[in-house]
Task: inverse folding
C-alpha cells in the first residue's frame, strides 16, 4: 500500500529489495538500502583485494588505524573478510603524532573499535620516534605540517609494523584520496611519485603497502559506517587548513558533482601512464641512507633530512 | 523543519516538501562532501523532507 508521505522523492525502494534507500549511486544508477550498501562495499573491497592479489596466505597485515572513518571501515571490512583467507592475521597500528585537542579523542575511538572487533592494537608516538611531539616540532613552521607529519607517520608506521612482524601495511586510502594524489602529483610535476606503485614488492626493502579501499568513494565509506552506527564523529585535524590537499579536494569534489566519473577518470589516466612509463628512466635507483641505512632515493632518507632541518 | 548543520548550528526552514539536494543547494553545500540523515535515518539526496522533519548534515572529510 502506498504511504501518504513518500519515503523519498526519487526512489521509495532499494533497487534490489523493498527497503528504504540510504544512498544513490551512479554508473549504473541505483538506490541501495543499508543491507545492500554494506554487501556491495564489502564485495567491491574483496574484489579489489582478490584482483590485485593484495593479500596472500600467511600474511600478517598491519592496518594503519587512526580511528577516523577510512581506517575504521578498513579494519571492519578486513576483520569480516579474515575468515575467508588462509592463516592471515591483523594488527592495528595507531600513530600518536602529539596533536593537542585532536589525537587523544581519536586514539580513544581507535581503542574502542579494536576492543569491539577483538583485534590486537599497538600505539606508537612521535615522541618515541624523534623525541618530540608534532605540536612542538611545528612551532614557527606550521605551514609545513602535512609534509613533516607525513614523513614521520610513514616512518613510525613502518617501525611499528616491522616490530609487529607484519608482511603488509594496509592503509585506508579511498578513491577520492587516490584521485587527489594523482592531481597533486601532476600539479607539483612529480612524475616519479605519480608512477610509483606502493603495493609493488620493492625488492624486500620495504613492507609492501596495500590500499584495499582504493575503489570505494569517501561518501560510500561514510554511509557504510553510518548505517552500522560506526561513523566516528571526531574533530578535524587542526593542521588540515595548511594542506594543498584541502584545495585539491574541494576542486575535485566540485568537478565530480558537475561531471560524475572525474575521479575515476583521473585514476584511469594514472594507471595508463604507469603501464607505459619506463620507471627506470623516471625514478632514482634505490640507495641506502648514509646516516641510518634505510632505503631511500638520495644520499639521506627523508627522516634524516628532516632530523637535520629540525636539529633533532 | 529543523536543519542541523555540520558545525552543529541549527537552522529552521519552512515545512514545505523539498528534496535534500535542494536543501544542500540553498545552503551552498556540495553533496559530495556530506551525508544526510532525516529523523536519524540516512537518506539519498533525492529524498524529500517536509513538515517537522529533522535533517542532519554530516561532513565526511577530516584529516586522518
Result:
Amino acid at each position: 500500500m502506498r504511504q501518504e508521505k513518500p519515503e523519498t522523492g526519487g526512489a521509495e525502494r532499494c533497487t534490489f529489495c523493498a527497503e528504504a534507500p540510504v544512498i544513490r549511486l551512479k554508473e549504473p544508477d541505483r538506490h541501495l538500502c543499508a543491507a545492500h550498501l554494506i554487501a556491495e562495499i564489502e564485495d567491491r573491497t574483496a574484489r579489489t583485494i582478490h584482483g590485485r592479489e593484495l593479500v596472500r596466505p600467511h600474511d600478517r597485515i598491519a592496518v594503519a588505524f587512526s580511528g577516523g572513518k577510512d581506517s575504521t571501515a578498513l579494519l571492519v571490512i578486513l576483520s569480516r573478510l579474515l575468515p575467508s583467507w588462509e592463516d592471515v592475521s591483523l594488527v592495528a597500528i595507531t600513530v600518536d603524532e602529539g596533536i593537542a585537542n585532536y589525537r587523544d579523542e581519536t586514539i580513544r575511538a581507535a581503542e574502542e573499535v579494536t576492543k569491539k572487533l577483538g583485534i590486537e592494537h599497538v600505539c606508537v608516538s612521535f615522541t618515541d620516534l624523534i623525541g618530540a611531539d608534532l605540536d612542538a616540532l611545528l612551532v614557527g613552521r606550521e605551514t609545513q605540517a602535512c609534509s613533516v607529519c607525513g614523513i614521520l607517520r610513514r616512518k613510525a608506521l613502518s617501525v611499528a609494523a616491522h616490530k609487529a612482524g607484519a608482511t603488509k601495511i594496509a592503509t585506508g586510502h579511498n578513491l577520492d584520496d587516490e584521485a587527489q594524489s594523482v592531481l597533486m602529483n601532476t600539479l607539483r610535476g612529480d612524475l616519479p611519485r605519480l608512477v610509483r606503485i606502493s603495493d609493488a614488492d620493492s625488492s624486500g626493502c620495504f613492507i609492501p603497502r596495500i590500499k584495499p579501499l582504493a575503489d570505494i568513494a569517501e561518501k560510500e565509506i561514510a554511509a557504510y559506517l553510518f548505517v552500522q552506527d560506526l561513523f566516528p564523529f571526531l574533530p578535524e585535524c587542526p593542521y588540515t587548513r595548511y594542506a594543498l590537499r584541502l584545495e585539491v579536494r574541494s576542486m575535485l569534489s566540485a568537478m565530480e558533482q558537475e561531471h560524475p566519473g572525474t575521479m575515476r577518470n583521473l585514476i584511469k589516466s594514472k594507471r595508463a601512464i604507469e603501464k607505459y612509463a619506463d620507471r627506470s628512466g623516471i625514478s632514482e635507483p634505490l640507495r641506502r641512507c648514509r646516516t641510518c641505512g634505510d632505503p631511500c632515493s638520495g644520499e639521506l632518507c627523508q627522516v634524516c633530512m628532516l632530523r637535520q632541518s629540525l636539529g633533532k | 523543519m529543523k536543519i542541523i548543520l555540520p558545525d552543529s548550528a541549527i537552522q529552521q526552514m519552512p515545512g514545505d516538501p523539498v528534496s535534500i539536494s535542494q536543501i544542500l543547494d540553498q545552503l551552498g553545500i556540495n553533496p559530495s562532501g556530506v551525508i544526510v540523515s532525516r529523523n536519524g535515518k540516512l537518506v539519498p539526496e533525492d529524498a524529500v523532507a517536509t513538515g517537522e522533519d529533522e535533517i542532519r548534515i554530516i561532513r565526511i572529510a577530516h584529516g586522518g
Notes: The longest strand of chain A covers residues 89-96.
